[in-house]
Structures are given as C-alpha cells and as structure tokens.
Amino acid sequence: MTEESTAPNTRGVTTELLATLDLGPEIAGLAGRQLRMRLVTIEPGGVFGPVHDHQDRPGMVYVLQGTITDHRNGVATEYGPGPGWSEDHATLHWLENRGATAAVEVSVDIVRQQ
Description:
Jelly Rolls, 8-stranded antiparallel beta sheet, 8 strands, globular
C-alpha cells in the first residue's frame, strides 16, 4: 500500500471559520458556491487526514506559524511559516505537524454551500 492510502485519521486539529462569501451574486455561473476562509491549527503530532482530494474544491494555504508537512504523490514537503501550497483538482494529500509547536495556517477555498 502507498503512503497515500494508509495515512492516519485526523487528530489534534481545530478549525475556526473566519469568513464566507456567497459567490453566486458576485460571479455568473457560481451560484451555490462559497468562498471560505478558515484558521486551521495542527498541534504537535497532529494530522489532517485521512487522504483527501480537492475535486470541486480548489484552495490555497498560507502558514502563519510552525511547519506543516504536506504528503502527496509519495513526497513529503515542509512549508512554513510563509507561503504554503495550492490545492487543485489533481491534489490528493494529507498533512501533519512534525514540529514541537502548534502549526497555524489560513486556508481559503471554494466550496459548495451547505
């Protein structure tokens, strides 16, 4: 089995919804979609998993503090603090905090309204 198929479940992660914007009135063709911004904290040893994709949910991440390891395509890449990564239709990944301090990111994505 690959690392992608055996990633651990989420633990040590909290999310705070910072803002949303209904995109229907803003851009033709985006009815039912929302621009969402969240603050995500991953505690030391925490995991944002299991493996998940971003089909129909593109996004971008900026790491405010700490270091987050992004696992995709069998490669582990560390980010932070500073610019993080994009999440497009081809993204299949999971995240972890291998550091000794909490890692905090701002995550912005487009989601279907619930």
